[in-house]
Specification:
By secondary structure, the protein is an alpha+beta fold. It has 47 helices and 34 strands. Keywords: Metal-binding, Zinc, Zinc-finger.
């Protein structure tokens, strides 16, 4: 359809359109207005004409959408066209209303004709960058495309905002800014910055708002009661009361001793540990399909229980406390003192196989270079210096081995050093002298590079580790079973997932951090792996079936039952095994097993019958969470070991008081050691561990570890490590778990990493560096190193997406053959913490999207998007995921794979239902029995529109009949103006809503809709809405425990603070009067209803209280309206926002309390009943609060007159002053003492 060249509206009526000789089309009226002669003084003429016809002037003026409607224009007049014509760039509302304007060119200020100044085009259209509709709340301030397309009121954003502009930090931290340098002031005037307070900003100065933008984070739903105030990621993601969104960086970094101090963390953020040791990846679980293992283990237990008629699970699923244990319990290792000293000196916990390789000096040198002390030497991070150090260390180890007659273990017939000498070591007549010569030459070179002190540290550590290696081979770790080699478990570090009762391994108990269990080389075995070869596994776990006859078949079955904590489904499989084992052991014939019963069995059997965790074969000491050691073993450690403990563990080691006996030479595989003191020591440790878990389980469950965790040494992209989970395996698990899998062929890969400089490669084959792979097709996602934040000018290397072989990385960078690249991918990110990346693979459309997620996704919206055709790269064939490191070490965690529907179902919002009450004309919320209640709806991503939201909510409530008219209402139960928001996500974000609060309501317009009919629709089989009954139960109990007294006192105190800040006005006085009235109702109605919860025997009194509660709803509604209506006047005041949120929470708990009693009490409420006569004390409080309010207002408005009138009576004067000041002796704060006594104590 053609559009008018003037107003840009469609030309619907042919009789109303005019075509010029040049073919340009107009509305007839638009053309007449354009041809109308202009007055010399247009502004004055327009004003005069407007004043002459005020009665007929259209209220919307030039902004009227019906300006070309003949019927409308016959009744109303509209202003003339702006005299500036196509040159007008004024976007002020008053100006747009005062004049009509030419349409804006679709290409705006980027129009070629505009830049060429083509007169004919410029006279028909205006050209300017439209103003960003979000103004100072725009989140795209680092998005180059957005900044180019829209105009903003603030200057160019600082490239280092919000986290790394030191100049802006100086300005915001100094109270006296005049003492700052001119460079600080000039920078903050020239560049805009993110306000550190965010939505809680109270600075109302024009200078601040013209140089700052305010990003509204989501509010933490728990507010001041949040339990995660020391969680850096949580604090960086949500807004909390009295905590700035952008906290300053702590100067102590990761070594800060106050990281567990909530007050300190509220002011400072902390960087992650940059020197975390590398846990090498050796592909020990290569070939294992863990998703299949998890599924078959769970189904095997399920079939066995059904076959033997066991009682099923009461809830139909695994209890949460058992799942919580499996998801959060730590792996525990035990060893003897000799092994423990070796661990301390080597700086690693090692497998038996790794210890065997320490006979090779080159292998020892690799171990030395990974020691935590040497990793702190910056010079060793350069290849040349590292090579010199490696040769120096190897030569030292060779000399030490020769001097201790350990040469039989050294490799013969080959040179151990890649040196520049002419004679190899094997051909030298004096091997020791050859190595000593190498030591002298490399020592001199290193001294010039890294300094004598670091050279001495390398020498000392090398000799310590070489001596420890010699000593270690006389006492190798482990029991030394030959089956361990057959099962390949000798390449792992053994541990027990939970309390470890393997006393025969030793009395030093080492507790590892949970994340080591999520390493790709880790796995979990139900009971000891060796039980498969011995046959005990088939006797103890009959659901495994008959034991295979051959050893190879038993080994194969062991590998088919291994579990992996980083792969989905392990928690349910492991929990099912624990439940079945406990039931079988206690002869329960039931799956209804408690966590206590599981632990009772656990502590009564040998550790080989619990859960065996096989960890990577080389684990740095940083991954040890805590150590328990008996007193006599601790005191007998060597001096070197004691120094290592002081340097590494500090507060992470506990010395028990027991003096334990030596370990039995012949191990006895029972739960408790025969020796008395050893048994007492073990019992103490297990009790401590279980108590510690019980104490901290609530915090651990809030943020338990998910996905795969790995560290990769720098390889310059020569080594590519495949993850133990493929895309197809992840999709197969999703398809089985979801009852209604999505047809959308989209996969999301999320991962966390530090530093960047990594490559993610998705391929159709597993990449092999030694094989020719002509059919290999892969997607390369290269993430550049994080930028420096100390340079004057921002610079960032290129991050890119491309198709090709990962070994072509340098060629792709040089020839620029990537599909898309970005040099501002990290702009706006916090580089001192982990980055959370998201890679989206839309296999159907060929789209690839790389973006930031998590906390950095709040301030960085620079997503990289590209499209591959099937001929370029077929995304449907990609299956394997590889990770590789460039010149920097990679520390990455939480590798997770999601499908589209899974993401939609994990992110939900709550909705409610409203309907007009025909009796009182009030819009009220419908409860569950009336077809209402709070429901959860699925969220279809950030681009979800209000039309989709409306349709989704109607579906949830079963309103499929199109004749039932509905509207959307916002969270405050007001009509929702969808025009104010771009998307539903924008609405959620700008209002700070969370998944725990009702975000939106559905209002039923039709008055004749029968609620019973709606209820019947809801119970149909076609639509089964999700109702979170546990949430309803929580809210009910929360209302019963909720302290109405404390909260109403807080509200009154907040209003007094507002009066102190802003002066006295009618709004605050009215608000204070309402809170005083509600205070009286707290004692007369709400407290009795709370107290009756425990003794609901007085039916008459409960009915009376409920009746009076219905009568006082007006005060709550009027207060809510008052707060909402004046929100714009106090929109930048943090205290006012706190008042609103606190009152809405208060009102919500009143409603919960009311609904709870109405559901349980079916007695008819008699409207003639009032507060019982024996409640005189509560009546006096209501009257008292009215007096209090009047005194308070009198003191505020006429303080001198009030003082003169009341000073004559000292007792009376003292009592009233106590009331006004809010003293604890006054009745405005109620403690445990009787109310009447408090009133008498005020003497008033």
């Amino acid at each position: 359809m053609s559009t008018c060249s003037s107003c840009n509206l469609p030309l619907k009526d042919k009789t109303d359109q005019v075509t010029t000789a040049t073919g340009i089309m107009f509305h007839r009226m638009c053309l007449e207005q354009l041809l109308k002669p202009k007055s010399p003084n247009t502004d004055q003429a327009s004003d005069t004409a407007a004043s002459a016809r005020d009665a007929k002037q259209c209220e919307k003026g030039g902004e009227c959408s019906q300006i070309n409607d003949r019927n409308h224009c016959s009744k109303w007049t509209h202003p003339d066209y702006c005299p500036d014509g196509g040159h007008c760039k004024n976007q002020q509302f008053d100006h747009l209303k005062k004049y009509r304007h030419l349409p804006l060119c679709s290409k705006s200020h980027k129009c070629i004709d505009y830049q060429k100044e083509v007169k004919e085009h410029c006279e028909k259209f205006r050209h300017f960058a439209p103003r960003c509709p979000y103004g100072n709340n725009c989140v795209d301030f680092h998005n180059k495309k957005h900044i180019d397309e829209f105009s903003h009121q603030y200057p160019t954003p600082c490239p280092y905002t919000p986290f790394h502009c030191s100049l802006y930090d100086d300005l915001t931290e100094h109270r006296n800014t005049r003492g700052l340098s001119n460079a600080v002031h000039q920078h903050c005037l020239n560049f805009a910055h993110v306000c550190r307070a965010g939505r809680n900003c109270t600075d109302t100065t024009q200078l601040h708002w013209s140089r700052s933008f305010h990003i509204a984070r989501n509010l933490c739903p728990y507010g001041e009661k949040c339990l995660r105030l020391t969680d850096e990621e949580h604090l960086n993601s949500f807004t909390h009361p009295n905590i700035l969104d952008i906290r300053l960086l702590c100067s102590e970094g990761d070594s800060c001793c106050d990281r567990a101090n909530a007050d300190h963390v509220a002011k400072f953020r902390h960087s992650i540990a940059d020197e975390t040791g590398v846990v090498p990846y050796y592909s020990l679980d290569k070939g294992s399909d863990f998703t299949k293992n998890h599924r078959e283990v769970f189904e095997r237990v399920k079939r066995y229980a059904e076959k033997n008629n066991w009682k099923p699970l009461p809830s139909g699923t695994i209890p949460n406390d058992i799942l919580d244990w499996v998801r959060t319990v730590f792996p525990i290792h035990r060893c003897n003192p000799i092994i423990f000293e070796s661990i301390l000196l080597h700086g690693h916990v090692m497998s038996r196989d790794y210890m065997e390789r320490l006979k090779n000096p080159k292998f020892v040198a690799t171990s030395v270079l990974q020691h935590s002390r040497l990793r702190r030497i910056d010079g060793l991070k350069t290849p040349a210096c590292e090579n010199d150090a490696r040769q120096y260390i190897t030569a030292l180890v060779c000399v030490e081995f020769i001097e201790n007659n350990f040469t039989s273990a050294m490799t013969q017939g080959m040179d151990l050093l890649d040196t520049d000498t002419a004679t190899p070591a094997a051909a030298h007549p004096d091997t020791k002298a050859f190595y000593q010569d190498i030591i002298k030459r490399k020592e001199n070179r290193l001294a010039l590079t890294i300094g004598n002190q670091d050279v001495k540290a390398i020498r000392d550590k090398t000799l310590q580790i070489a001596q420890a290696s010699i000593k270690l081979h006389s006492n190798p770790a482990g029991i030394g079973h030959e089956p361990d080699k057959i099962l390949r478990t000798d390449k792992h570090v053994f541990s027990i997932l939970g309390p470890h009762q393997g006393h025969y391994y030793g009395d030093v108990i080492v507790i590892f951090k949970r994340e080591i269990l999520h390493h790709p080389d880790s796995n979990i075995s139900m009971q000891a792996a060796t039980t498969y070869l011995s046959g005990n596994a088939y006797r103890w776990r009959p659901w495994l079936g008959q034991a295979p006859g051959s050893q190879d078949e038993r080994v194969k079955q062991y590998h088919a039952t291994k579990l992996h904590a980083g792969v989905p489904g392990y928690d349910y499989a492991l929990s099912a095994e624990l439940i079945a084992l406990t039931s079988l052991h206690q002869k329960l014939n039931s799956l209804d097993v408690s966590m206590k019963q599981i632990l009772d069995r656990w502590t009564s059997v040998d550790s080989h019958q619990t859960v065996e965790a096989h960890l990577p074969q080389l684990i740095p000491l940083e991954y040890i969470d805590h150590v328990y050691i008996p007193k006599n073993i601790y005191e007998n450690l060597s001096e070197d070991a004691m120094r290592a403990i002081g340097a590494v563990f500090r507060n992470r080691i506990s010395v028990a008081e027991q003096i334990v006996e030596p370990v039995d030479k012949v191990p006895t595989f029972v739960a408790r050691p025969p020796a008395k003191m050893r048994a007492e020591y073990q019992d103490t440790c297990i009790h401590t561990l279980l108590f510690r878990y019980k104490k901290y389980t609530s915090q651990l469950v809030l943020n338990y570890h998910r996905g795969i965790t790995m560290t990769i040494r720098p390889t310059n992209f020569e080594e590519h490590y495949v993850l133990p989970l493929t895309i197809r395996q992840a999709y197969e698990h999703y398809r089985i778990m979801e009852s209604d899998p999505s047809t959308a062929n989209t996969t999301y890969i999320y991962w966390k990493a530090a530093n960047g400089d990594m490559m993610i490669t998705l391929s159709n084959e597993e990449i092999s560096p030694t094989e020719h792979q002509p059919n290999l097709r892969s997607l390369i996602c290269y993430v550049a190193p994080k930028p420096s934040v100390t340079d004057d000018n921002y610079h960032e290397a290129s991050t890119y997406l491309s198709a090709g072989h990962p070994f072509q990385h340098e060629t792709i960078v040089i020839k620029k053959t990537y599909k898309i690249k970005s040099n501002h991918f990290y702009m706006g990110c916090n580089v001192n913490d982990f980055f959370t990346y998201c890679l989206e693979i839309h296999r159907g459309s060929g789209h690839i999207v790389l973006s930031h997620a998590g906390p950095n996704g709040i301030y960085n919206h620079n997503a990289m998007v590209c499209v591959f055709s099937r001929s370029e790269l077929d995304l449907t064939t990609l299956n394997f995921v590889h990770v590789s490191a460039g010149k920097h070490k990679i520390l990455s965690s939480s590798w997770n794979f999601y499908q589209e529907t899974f993401l939609m179902k994990t992110k939900r919002f709550r909705c409610g239902r409203l309907r007009l009450n025909q009796t009182n004309g009030i819009i009220e919320k419908l409860e569950l029995e009336n077809g209402g209640g709070s429901r959860y709806c699925h969220w279809f991503g950030k681009q979800m529109t209000f039309v989709q939201v409306h349709r989704q909510i109607r579906k949830v409530y079963g309103l499929s009949d199109p004749q039932i008219r509905t509207k959307l209402y916002d969270y405050q139960k007001q009509p929702l103006d969808t025009e104010q928001y771009r998307t539903f996500h924008d609405y959620i974000d700008r209002n700070g809503l969370s998944g725990n609060s009702i975000a939106i309501y559905l209002y039923t317009c039709d008055e004749d809709v029968d609620n019973d009919v709606i209820s019947n629709v809801l119970s149909s089989k076609e639509i089964i809405p999700y109702v979170d009954q546990s949430m309803n139960t929580f809210r009910m109990s929360h209302a019963i425990e909720y302290s109405f007294i404390n909260e109403i006192n807080r509200l009154k105190r907040y209003v007094r603070e507002l009066m102190n800040e802003n002066g006295i006005d009618n709004v605050l006085l009215q608000l204070f009067e309402n809170f005083c009235t509600i205070y009286g109702y707290v004692f007369s109605i709400l407290l009795p209803l709370q107290q009756q919860q425990n003794d609901p025997t007085n039916a008459m009194e409960i009915t009376v209280y409920l009746n009076n509660l219905e009568k006082i709803y007006e005060i709550f509604e009027s207060t809510k309206t008052l707060l909402h209506r004046n929100m714009s006047n106090y929109r930048r005041n943090r205290t006012y926002s706190t008042v609103r949120s606190t009152f809405f929470q208060f009102y919500n708990n009143v409603q919960i309390l009311r609904n709870r009693w109405l559901r349980n009490d079916t007695r008819k409420i008699d409207s003639t009943l009032s507060i019982p006569t024996h409640s005189d004390e509560r009546k006096s409080i209501c009257a008292y609060m009215q007096i209090y309010y009047k005194i308070f207002v009198a003191n505020l408005t006429h303080p001198e007159a009030w003082k003169a009138k009341n000073e004559t009576d000292p007792i009376r004067y003292y009592g009233i002053k106590q009331i006004i000041s809010g003293s604890r002796e006054a009745a405005i704060v109620i403690d445990e003492k009787p109310i009447s006594k408090q009133i008498r104590r005020t003497k008033y």
